[in-house]
Design goal:
The complex is a heterodimer of chains A (about 280) and B (about 280). Chain A has about 280 residues and is mostly helical. Chain A has helices at about 1-35, 40-45, 55-85, 90-105, 110-125, 130-155, 155-165, 170-180, 185-200, 200-205, 225-235, 240-275. Chain A has 2 domains: about 1-30; about 55-275, MetI-like fold, CATH 1.10.3720.10. Chain A is built from 12 helices and no strands. The longest helix of chain A has about 35 residues, at about 240-275. In chain A, about 40% of the residues are buried. Chain B is α/β, with parallel strands linked by helices and about 280 residues long. Chain B has a single domain, classed as P-loop containing nucleotide triphosphate hydrolases (Rossmann fold). Chain B is about 40% helix and about 25% strand. Chain B contains 12 helices and 10 strands. Chain B has helices at about 1-25, 70-75, 105-110, 130, 135-140, 145-155, 160-165, 175-190, 205-220, 235-240, 255-260, 265-275, and strands at about 30-40, 45-55, 60, 85-95, 95-100, 115, 195-200, 225-230, 240-245, 250-255. The N and C termini of chain B lie far apart (about 60 Å). The chains are: A mainly alpha (about 280), B alpha/beta (about 280). The interface of A and B includes residues 158, 162, 172, 176 and 270 of A.
Amino acid sequence: MLVDKIMSALIIVAVAIAVIALVAILADTVIQGLPVINVDFLKNIPGPVTVPDRGIGPDIVGTFTMVGLATLMSVPIGVGAGVFFSEWPESRLSFISSFTNDVLAEFPSMVIGIFVWVTLVISMKTFSGLAGAVALGIIMIPIIARTTEESLKIVPRTLREASIALGVSRWKTVVRIVMSTGKAGLATGILLAIARAAGETAPLLVTALGNSFFAKSIFEPTAAIPLFVFDYAISPYAIWHSYAWGAALVLIAIMLALNLVVRLVIKRNVTTRAEI
Amino acid sequence: MEILEGIEIQSERVRNKLAENTKFQESTTELEINGLKAGFGRTQVLKGISLQIKQNSITAIMGPSGCGKTTFIRCINRLHELTPGATVEGEVKLDGVNIYSREVDPVAVRRKVGMVFQKPNPFPTMSVYDNVVAGLKLNGVRDKKRLDGVVEKSLKMAFLWDEVKDELKKSGSALSGGQQQRLCIARTLAVEPEIILMDEPCSALDPTATAKIEEAMVSLKKDYTIVIVTHNMQQAARVADYTAFFYLGEMVEYGPTQQVFEKPKNELTERYITGKFG
């Protein structure tokens, strides 16, 4: 009994520490960042410290563009790999690629940035949004693959067998029964990967570079919110520090909104199909 | 005169009955298993099973846990081979064709041989309606009228229609355990198989739910051949026309249920039935 109580107390303390850290960071970001956020901040380009009403417009657009492109590239590959790991575990190729996937997941993101710099930036002779998106995509793949695998593995075997026993092919069973049952987990994994990519700074330094203006195409250097935060946070000006806080808060708000929307969509999908 | 007429009718009934019986005996066995061996890796679970299953009858496979009865029926729809390391040898002839011969597509086999599992396993993301027609929809049937008809017919055959007809949109997993299992039976019926395999379909259910499923089984027998695995002897005695007794991967006895229960030929069967082991 005593042991039970001690363990519960320890767990509560651990949770409290985790929550306090999160709340403290979030609160600090809101307190420092909220005052600078207004419409101008969201749509204007950045500029010299003496010019008022400067903003992070190009960075918001750049983050959306690169993370969007990275998602388009990494979701098919990551989900495909995850399905393969989960549904064909007996295959040797599956074992090897699953192992490789783990290694890739643990690569420092800077290494991935340098890889893309060597392959894409040098051969295209320019830093570009495309290069940034490729780097982010490579970072997202192992996360998506792993979470897809895990969320499909917990779909009960009996559901696969029920479908196969109805004379449904294995492939259709995977797509229509297994993936549809595990879709909440799948979506969570993709979101997790998007959040991770949206916050990446290091690989973008050597691929997208950053830009003080709106990039006209994905073949030009492109701004991103984390790059802005990085540049402005290490600057000597107090006003730029608060801009960095504001940009960080905008990034957090975007991720939160995305998370909520996806969750609502999944929930509504499940309920309209299943309940009522 | 009337008496004579009565005798006439009576004897005609007897003749019909006889004709029916001979017809039954002559009817080609739809399902024939020859020397079926199966296992996992090096473990041999079935050590050479041969039996013929009669059309439009219920055949019970009975035996203590681990005797291979579930493996046996999972070989009839080629589900066994999906388990990593599974091995199969021997013949399973469906309408004269060995389903294990090379040119046979296992997916096609499973359309002819449906299966109801031990635990009810409706698709959790689908409504009652979609669960019933899952097999058809996944194989590309879109015709709403046809699907509506199949839903009603299948649910009626599974004795579930009256209970769910007003809530077909409800989630399949919101039903009670017994209803879920009848939903799974309806789902199996919807693809119109020839044979229905049931793997201890009532082991997770209470007696009332069990009674409803047994009732459904008996009425299904006129259109389907049913093979049911059970370790509930009373259930075998209640519903099965034929009973096979499996022990340690071998078939010890097989015959009409009454004979197996009342005059077993093998001592092992007798000991099992009288509850001396199990």
